[in-house]
User: What shape does this take?
Amino acid sequence: MHAAGRPIGDDGGVLDDWIAAAKTELGIDLEVDVHGLLDMTRDVAHGVARPAAPLTAFLVGYAAASAGGGPEAVAEANRKAAQLALRWAADRAEEHPE
Assistant: This one.
């Protein structure tokens, strides 16, 4: 039985179960740095716009695949996207001080 409706990060392991099922369904055998990707999407959602987070996650995956795939390619694309989000937020803060 699936644990639909349980929040992400709960003690039931829903996120781990989902990632495992999604990897199987998509035919992917790759270790996923879940915390790193969630940190990046948080930075994008807060520093750019919420809808930019899942779109950026897609772009990170595409960039990693284009660079040959594998955990290192994902980590590098993720690092670049996270740094861009932080720079973006800082630039916007300078342009529009509160």
